[in-house]
Design a protein that fits this description.
371 residues, alpha+beta, 6-stranded mixed β-sheet, 5-stranded mixed β-sheet, 14 helices, globular
Length: 371
């Protein structure tokens, strides 16, 4: 049997999604990443916990060089030279980060071609739809961008610093650190506590708990084990309410709920119903048990207010993607890498060396659609 060389592992396109907390790496046409690792590295023995926080160009270049080397040679066990690469990126990612990443991949690691795919558009590839309201709640911020016929509507984007880190700060502030030994830090286990023990409660229970009243049945306390040697108690109140911070309005009356409604209000009238019925949730934070149900309750509750009751929307519909929410965008990049559009929209190393320029993907994609 003859095997097409384009689908051999050494020929497959590589898909990388560099998030602020975790990076997903794998090959196009595959249904899940080969590895998911923290987005951190070392520079001359100094640990860099967050690559995106590197301020100067030299430090960022060294950080990305070391991180890409570790990603390919330690975890993926494949050489990047002459490979086609897709980078799934946030549309709000700093331009400097994008340009330095392209330079590292093209110059240092000599990849054959590079294509930047917006994560909000890539997420819709997994569902086979071209229009939707994509809400990405990762580690540091929630980003909402509507996509219309495959093109992100950037004038309607919304972003807030409400995400996984906000929930972890609630855990850090509300757990009795007296339970920990002097050499233990609550910061290092807050994420694991959040994932293993916490959930999103219903809107009705949240309102009752906010008044200080008891609600039945009560959520039980759990014992969280540390290193298999000792444990600390996580109260039922903490388990049930730490995610409520994502739905509370700030001084400007904004929350994750109002982000969605404001985007719908400001969109064209003929698009409002379509956006409300095509909501896509991505990012690790939305994986919390009960999150989608609570968000739907919050949206329907807000529709009763005088500010939004003229929208003429009676329901909201959420898509269920064929993957875990934390790598939906990566899967979209994997699907995109198996199409002919990859060769059309990618920039080759030769073109990069001649032009020293990284094209903007949304602009390129729009031009291709028009032509």
């Amino acid at each position: 049997m003859k095997i097409d060389s384009e689908f051999l592992p050494e020929k497959q396109c590589i898909v990388i999604d560099i998030g602020t907390k975790y990076t997903k790496f794998g090959f196009a046409t595959e249904h899940s990443p080969r590895c998911i690792i923290p987005t951190c590295c070392e520079i001359d023995g100094t640990f860099i916990p967050d690559i995106y926080k590197c301020k100067d160009v030299q430090t960022l270049t060294l950080a990305l060089t070391n991180f890409i080397h570790m990603l390919f040679y330690k975890y993926a066990l494949v050489a990047p030279k002459d490979k086609k690469v897709i980078i799934v990126e946030s549309l709000l990612s700093p331009t400097t980060f994008k340009e330095i990443l392209a330079k590292v991949l093209f110059i240092t690691y000599e990849v054959a071609s590079l294509c930047f795919v917006p994560s909000h558009c890539a997420s819709l590839f997994t569902l086979g739809i071209s229009t939707g309201l994509v809400l990405d709640i990762g580690y540091k911020e929630a980003i909402l961008i509507p996509v219309c016929e495959g093109v992100p509507v950037l004038r309607l984007w919304q972003a807030m610093a409400l995400a996984g880190q906000t929930v972890e700060n609630q855990i850090i502030n509300r757990i009795d650190i007296g339970q920990l030994s002097p050499d233990e830090s609550i910061d290092s286990i807050a994420e694991d506590i959040k994932v293993r023990t916490c959930f999103v409660t219903t809107l009705k229970r949240s309102k009752i708990l906010a008044t200080g009243q008891n609600v039945e049945p009560k959520t039980s306390d759990v014992e969280y084990h540390i290193n298999g040697e000792r444990s600390i108690t996580i109260s039922g109140d903490v388990r049930e309410t730490v995610h409520d911070v994502l739905f509370k309005e700030n001084i400007d009356e904004m929350s994750i709920t109002t982000m969605i409604l404001e985007t719908i209000v400001n969109s064209n009238v003929d698009m409002r119903l379509k956006l409300a019925e095509n909501i896509v949730l991505i990012g690790g934070t939305v994986m919390a048990k009960g999150f989608m149900a609570r968000l739907k309750e919050e949206l329907l509750e807000k529709l009763k207010s005088s500010k939004y009751n003229n929208l003429k929307i009676t329901k909201f519909k959420f898509h269920i993607a064929p993957a875990y929410e934390n790598y939906i965008a990566w899967l979209g990049g994997s699907i995109f890498g198996s199409t002919n559009n990859l060769n059309i929209l990618s920039q080759t190393r030769e073109n990069y060396l001649n032009e020293n320029y990284v094209p903007d993907w949304p602009t390129t994609f729009t031009r291709q659609k028009i032509e």
